[in-house]
Structure formats: structure tokens, C-alpha cells
């Protein structure tokens, strides 16, 4: 047993170093935490910027529609040459004998008109309500896109951490197999092991090297995805705590919360409101339009009459379209069909949210239930490797048994790492389905 102690000590040191590298609990001051990375990614993402620009456009659309309630003031001014030949000019007393009965004058004409809407069949108010609903939809679409971008950022961040830990485990596994190979070579030199043991040890070293190469490829791919999506190379990432999002106690409560808070549902609900308001706006053409018009006019040399001509009028002007080729009927029918389509879209969005929430809740439960047996497997396989190592040193256990036990322990630890990150991803996906991902990360705003 004394000869086995240095190997076990070396193995313990290697594993401890790997765990210290992969599961470092404290972060340096310059570490990039998950919330910081996600918040920066959301702010810089072009899809989010696009939706924020559309939200600003929707704000201005509300102002456009509200302008219909305000008075309109128009100034019209003209001036120039005018020739007039009418009964007045032909019968005027100052006409010369050889006059051509017309009059050549320099005319000016200025009109100031104020129009105030009194009634338009609720068209303006309906269009304003539609614009308000469209603005709500645009606002929630910013939140919807932000949540989706946040989830993608979370996944690429966690994938880098996961592949880093898998890389550390694969390196530790290779180091362990190389140490076993050196031990077998020493035993073969002293006649305690044969050529078959050497070949087995070398084969397992080659297999461990292949596993390390595979993990290195996964690590490079994860880092490439991170660089492309986040916009910078990963550095000093920090593994988030295991409890990032506390799920509701039941699926039903999770679904209720998702239907209340998920921005996709809010978007489709606002689109229904906008479509219904547009129907009312289209029906406004079936009513007369009534405007208050105050007009002041002043001119000079108008219609062949020399001198200034001024007038002021205050009128209630009624306009009522009697027939325009069934255009208004077609518009109402089109708006009604669009409202029906918006209603169907809302129903599908709610169904999808229920499905996503239900699946995410089940996946989270599965990930939680899977961790305890994975931890037990790691602990049991570790004890097996330690016992087999001691027995191998005493000649009571074959090398193949030790190598198989070490391979099982490596796979158990690898599965546990995947299980830990599967749990984190499942938590964030449930938070996404419930519309609370950014809240779970401590990120506020749109």
C-alpha cells in the first residue's frame, strides 16, 4: 500500500487542480459576470436597436393621430396680373369709347382659415386608440426581443463555461492515464507487469488524448459562438450560482404567470386592440363630418373691381359622402378580416406560451431530479478508482479493471458537469417562457 500512496496523492493533486480551475468560486475584480454580459449584449444588439427605433416611430404615430383633434390654420396668399371681361366690366360707367370692355389689373388675394373638427364619426379618436395600441405592441416587442437575445447570450455564456470545465476534466483524465502508463512501465521494468498491460495503458492514453481533442474542438466552437454573438472574446467568465430562478410550485401557476407576463402575449393582445380600433375608424366614413371654419379674406382688384375687398366668415361646414363606389364597405370588411387574423394570432401565441412553459417546467424538474444520482455516481466511481488503485498496486486487481474504473469516473464527472449546466439552462428557459428572464438576471428596463 505504501507504493500506491504517491500515485493516489498525485491523482488527488491533479483532480484538485482541475476542479480549482473549472469551479473557481471567487472571481477577479475584472470578471465578466453573466448579468453584465447579457445587459451589454441587449444594449448593443441590432435587433433590439431596430425594435427601439420602431417604438420611437410608434410614439410619433400617436402624436400624428392626436393632431387630428387640434385646429388647423392655413394661410393662402396670391398676387399677380388678372384680366377680367364680364357684365360688370362691360357696363361700367367709366369705360372709354374704344375700350375692349375688359379690365387689366394687378390683383392680390390673402385668406386665413381656421378649421376645428367638431365631429367625424369618431374616426380621429378611433385612429388615436389604434396608434396607442400599436405603441403598446411596439413597446412589448422590444421586451420580447430583449428576452430572446438575453436567452441566446445566456446559452453561449454558459456553453463556454461548460466546455472549459469539460476541457479541464479531459486534461486531468489524460494526466491520470499518463501517470498510470509511467507506473506500468516501471512495473514492467521490474517484471511486475507484462506487455499486455503496457499496450492497454498506451491504448487508454490514446483514448484520453482523443477525448481531449474532442473537448478542445467543442471549446473552440463555443468560444467562436460567444465571440460572434457577444462581440468580444470570452475572458474571466464567472459560473453563476445554481439557484438563478425559483420556479412556481405547479405547472398551472407557471402557465398563469406566463400568460400574464410573457411579452409575446402582450404584443398580440395589443395588435387585437389596434385592429378593432381600425374597424371603428373605417366605419367613421358612414357618418357626416362637421367642422367649424373661421375664415378671413382680404384682397385688392379682385374680379375686375378696383379697390380693397375684405370679408370674415364663421361657418359650421357639413360634409357627407353619399357614394364612393363601395370603397368604405370594402375597407370595413378588410379591417374586420385583419382583426380576425389578429385574434387567431393571439390564440396561437397563447398556445405556444403554454406549450413552452409546460415543456420548460418539465425539463427543469427532470434536470433537478437527475442531479442527485449523478452526484452519487461520481462519489461511488471515485471510491471505486481509489480501491482499485490500491488493489492494483498489491497485485490483486488487473490493470484493465483500474482503467475501466477510471474511465467510468471520468464519464460520471463529465455527466455531472453537463447536468449542472443543463439545470441552469432549464431555469433560464422557464424564466424566458414566463417573461421573467431579465428579471431573474437583475436586468431592468426594455
Characteristic key phrases:
disordered N terminus, alpha+beta, single chain, Outer membrane efflux proteins (OEP), 446 residues, 4 strands
Q: What name goes with the CATH superfamily? A: Outer membrane efflux proteins (OEP)
How much of the polypeptide forms β-strand, as a percent range? 5-15%
Gross morphology: elongated
The number of helices is 11
Cα gyration radius (Å): 40 Å
Proportion of helical residues: 55-70%
Largest sheet: 4 strands, antiparallel
Task: Report the mean per-residue pLDDT as an integer.
Answer: 89
Which CATH architecture would you pick? Answer: Up-down Bundle
Question: In terms of per-residue confidence, which ranges show pLDDT below 50 for 5 or more consecutive residues?
Answer: 1-29
Report the span from N to C terminus: 64 Å
Write the SSE topology.
Blueprint: H1 4-22, H2 34-44, H3 46-66, E1 72-84, H4 87-90, E2 103-119, H5 123-189, H6 195-230, H7 251-261, H8 263-283, E3 289-302, E4 305-319, H9 327-393, H10 399-433, H11 437-440
Antiparallel strand pairs: 1-2, 2-3, 3-4
Helix pairs in contact: 1-5, 2-5, 3-5, 5-6, 5-8, 5-10, 7-9, 8-9, 9-10
Amino acid at each position: 500500500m505504501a507504493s500506491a500512496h504517491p500515485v493516489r496523492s498525485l491523482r488527488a493533486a491533479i483532480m484538485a487542480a482541475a476542479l480549482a480551475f473549472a469551479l473557481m468560486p471567487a472571481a477577479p475584480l475584472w470578471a465578466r459576470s453573466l448579468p453584465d454580459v447579457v445587459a451589454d449584449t441587449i444594449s448593443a444588439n441590432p435587433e433590439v436597436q431596430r425594435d427601439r427605433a420602431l417604438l420611437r416611430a410608434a410614439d410619433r404615430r400617436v402624436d400624428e393621430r392626436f393632431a387630428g383633434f387640434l385646429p388647423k390654420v392655413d394661410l393662402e396668399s396670391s398676387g399677380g396680373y388678372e384680366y377680367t371681361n364680364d357684365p360688370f366690366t362691360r357696363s361700367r360707367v367709366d369705360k372709354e369709347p374704344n375700350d375692349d370692355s375688359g379690365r387689366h389689373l394687378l390683383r392680390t388675394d390673402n385668406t386665413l382659415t381656421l378649421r376645428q373638427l367638431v365631429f367625424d364619426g369618431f374616426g380621429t379618436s378611433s385612429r388615436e386608440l389604434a396608434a396607442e395600441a400599436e405603441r403598446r405592441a411596439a413597446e412589448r416587442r422590444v421586451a420580447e426581443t430583449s428576452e430572446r437575445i438575453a436567452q441566446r447570450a445566456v446559452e453561449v455564456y454558459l456553453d463556454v463555461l461548460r466546455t472549459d470545465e469539460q476541457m479541464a476534466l479531459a486534461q486531468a483524465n489524460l494526466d491520470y492515464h499518463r501517470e498510470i502508463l509511467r507506473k506500468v512501465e516501471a512495473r514492467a521494468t521490474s517484471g511486475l507487469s507484462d506487455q499486455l498491460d503496457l499496450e492497454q495503458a498506451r491504448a487508454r492514453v490514446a483514448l484520453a488524448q482523443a477525448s481531449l481533442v474532442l473537448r478542445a474542438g467543442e471549446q473552440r466552437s463555443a468560444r467562436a459562438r460567444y465571440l460572434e454573438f457577444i462581440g468580444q472574446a470570452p475572458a474571466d467568465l464567472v459560473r453563476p450560482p445554481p439557484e438563478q430562478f425559483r420556479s412556481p410550485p405547479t405547472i398551472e401557476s407557471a402557465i398563469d404567470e406566463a400568460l400574464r407576463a410573457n411579452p409575446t402575449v402582450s404584443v398580440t393582445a395589443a395588435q387585437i386592440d389596434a385592429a378593432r380600433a381600425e374597424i371603428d375608424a373605417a366605419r367613421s366614413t358612414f357618418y357626416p363630418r362637421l367642422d367649424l371654419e373661421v375664415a378671413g379674406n382680404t384682397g385688392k382688384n379682385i374680379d375686375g373691381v378696383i379697390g380693397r375687398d375684405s370679408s370674415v366668415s364663421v361657418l359650421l361646414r357639413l360634409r357627407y359622402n353619399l357614394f364612393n363606389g363601395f370603397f368604405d364597405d370594402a375597407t370595413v370588411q378588410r379591417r374586420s378580416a385583419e382583426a380576425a387574423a389578429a385574434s387567431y394570432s393571439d390564440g396561437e401565441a397563447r398556445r405556444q406560451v403554454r406549450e413552452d412553459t409546460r415543456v420548460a417546467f418539465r425539463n427543469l424538474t427532470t434536470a433537478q431530479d437527475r442531479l442527485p444520482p449523478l452526484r452519487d455516481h461520481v462519489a461511488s466511481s471515485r471510491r471505486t478508482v481509489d480501491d482499485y488503485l490500491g488493489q492494483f498496486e498489491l497485485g490483486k486487481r488487473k490493470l484493465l479493471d483500474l482503467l475501466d474504473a477510471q474511465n467510468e469516473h471520468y464519464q460520471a464527472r463529465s455527466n455531472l458537469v453537463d447536468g449542472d449546466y443543463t439545470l441552469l439552462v432549464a431555469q433560464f428557459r422557464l424564466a424566458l417562457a414566463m417573461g421573467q428572464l431579465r428579471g431573474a438576471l437583475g436586468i431592468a428596463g426594455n
